[in-house]
Amino acid sequence: MPNSVMHTTIEGDGQQVPAAVSAVGLRKSYGDRAVLDGIDLRIQAGSVFALLGPNGAGKTTVVKILSTLIGADGGQAQVAGHDLATDPQVVRAAIGVTGQFSAVDGLITGEENMLLMADLHHLSKTEGRRVTAELLERFDLTDAAKKPASTYSGGMKRRLDIAMTLVGSPRIIFLDEPTTGLDPRSRHTMWQIIRELVTGGVTVFLTTQYLEEADELADRIAVLNNGRIAAEGTARELKRLIPGGHVRLRFTDPTTYRSAATTLTDATHDDEALTLQILSDGSQRDLRAILDRLDTSGIEADELTVHTPDLDDVFFALTGSTTLPAPTKETAR
To answer: What secondary structure letter does DSSP report for 83?
Structure first.
């Protein structure tokens, strides 16, 4: 991998601050199959970045490259301000990785798993026990600390896995599908843990197949498809890429309905249901413009409903699937 690439973010005072993770033109092939075909990334420190993609899209390959587990065939990347090619040891000291499959040893207790990680990070016995006790308490595992990890539930094992990742106080954490297989309660617990990590200044690189998870947690989302980044932005920005958003106005009085139809000439009519439908991205500005037009004519709708595409729509559209979710999400106002 060639040397030195640096993406920066500009703070309010004009100071340039290195991105937590930056990459330009990352490539990786297995045989004649290009898994990554030149991807660019820039992840701001103290944020959650979610990478979405179908199975086999290369999400785990990206994580493995950025966490120095495998090398890229081409491109440039820096993690925590250090070049992956020239400073891999320094990068490893700054990051934590929780893979798809738990690194927990079921034959020993949760506490022993933690102490083992403390030894691997060369912490003193005293420091290792202090950090272990703090993390076990933080992740609500103190009561189970002396029990074999094989007796833990899936959610407990995942919490222990992340607690082990935090022993070395990493500032950047890679979570590769951390909630796969968890029940809804355990998944929400994991979400809260991720939010707390970010509040503490940690940067989280998250891969997930749960679109709701990315929508709930991520500051920015990228969709990986056919080895390339198909789109990147906030959840709201990505949703606006997909057509189909609209506002539906319902009336109970036929006269008011007809007046509204005359005012909103760009709306589609349903005379039987007394509803009007007008294209909209669902933004506050767009809604205000529609309501202002009605207010100017002294018209008030009995019900206003905003219909917006969700991340399911975005995902399927960008990854070329022919199967789309049936209805769009609705928010009554």
So the answer is: E
Could you write out the DSSP letters of every residue in 245-296? -EEEEE-SSHHHHHHHHHH-TTSEEETTTTEEEEE----HHHHHHHHHHHHH
> In this structure, what are the phi and psi dihedrals at residue 169, rounded to the nearest 5 degrees?
50, 50
Amino acid at 41: L
Domain membership of residue 317 (yes or no) is yes
Neighbours of 192 (CB within 10 A): 9
- DSSP per position, 307-321: EE--HHHHHHHHTT-
Closest to 111 in 3D by CA, of 169, 152, 80, 79: 152
**Residue 210 sits in a domain of what CATH number?**
3.40.50.300
pLDDT digits (tens, 9 = 90+) for 81-95: 999 999 999 999 999
Q: Please check whether residue 218 lies inside any domain of the structure.
A: yes
Domain endpoint, select from 199, 233, 267: 233
The band of 149, judged by pLDDT with boundaries at 50, 70 and 90, is very high
Beta strand pairing status for 16-18 and 8-10? antiparallel
Q: pTM of the full predicted structure?
A: 0.75
Angle (CA) 48 188 95, round 5°: 35
Number of domains in the chain: 2
Do 193 and 54 share a domain, yes or no?
Answer: yes
The verdict on 49 and 160 lying in the same domain is: yes
| 53 and 198 co-located in one domain | yes
- Rounded CA-CA distance 82/96 in Å is 15
Q: What is the pLDDT of residue 215?
A: 92
Judge if 207 and 170 occupy the same domain.
yes
CA angle 46, 178, 157 (to 5 degrees): 115
Please check whether residues 214 and 96 belong to one and the same domain. Answer: yes
Give residue 219's domain range. Answer: 45-71+82-104+152-233
Cβ neighbours around 119 below 10 Å, total: 13
Residue 93 in tokens: 């000291």
